[in-house]
Amino acid sequence: MNVTPIYHMNYLCRDNIYYIKREDALPYSFGGNKVRKALLFFEDLKQNDSDCVVTYGSGSSNHCRIVANMAAAMGIPCYIISPSEASKPTANSKMIHMLGATIIQCPVTEVGIVISKKLDELSAQKHRPYFIQGGGHGNIGTQAYVNVYQEILDYECSENVHFDYIFHASGTGTTQAGLVCGKIINKDDREIIGISIARKNPYGIQVVLDSVNDYLKSRGIDYEDTADITFIDDYIVNGYGTHNDEILKTIREIFVNEGIPLDATYTGKAFWGMNKFIKSNRITEKNILFIHTGGIPLFFDDLEEFSIE
Ligand SMILES: *Cc1c(COP(=O)(O)O)cnc(C)c1O
User: Fold this and answer.
1) β-pair type (165-170, 191-196)
2) Which residues line ligand 1 (CB under 6 A)?
3) Which atom of ligand 1 is nearest to the CA of 62?
4) pTM of the model
């Protein structure tokens, strides 16, 4: 898949120089970090000669939309286990439906059991199901962002710039783990700052660290240190999917001035959190890269919030 663009943001040239990497511009199913991960998972699926795919996530899940799309394109069945608590119709849930995925709803506490049952059932019917963890978590998902880290290095090299900070929305921590592994492998000096959109510490940071260790171990690189992981849980508002007026204001500002769509669950929240973090830590005169991790369909869901009375 194509290298995504990185460019300088005009609007935010106040105390620092801001760049953005447009992972939302990946040319498949509205893009985003879940495309990066899913492409690698589907390569693995093909190598395993699997004939159906099972994953989980809510109706608003970008991951589920993309997995459903890739499965439909291959002509294989896609089963999505979905917590019934988060079943409000969204642009993503409507696309998942249109793509013909089978959605199996259950209470969030039973998701694990329902997944194993479905996998057992499919195997018993002589199918070869391929399972993808929610959000595309796991070493394959981590690999996707090790690759992206390399793209960032290539950009720095060709444009003769060094990013002192990389900020992005952190959810399951897989994207962050990939970037951190890239940094460790290349022995680079910079800060990678995940702005948590839901999880609190110490759990949030631990999951990123476990993913980093898992990946590096699988590549035969030994590493054990928490110092390298900056997972900020100060800007989660009231948890996953919640937002405030300042986040909406940020989304409006960035759309008006840069023409870049952000959403209130992931990128808008992270962008707002990044601004607050930079201010409270008095960061100035640095090169800052924000990774736009996608979620474009959520931008359209959020538009309701901006409707004129
Ligand atoms: C899933 C998602 C994230 C979080 O990525 P993780 O790898 O789970 O941390 C961030 N932004 C968007 C738009 C997403 O869909």
Assistant:
1) parallel
2) 32-34, 62, 135, 169-176, 266-267, 293-295
3) 15
4) 0.96
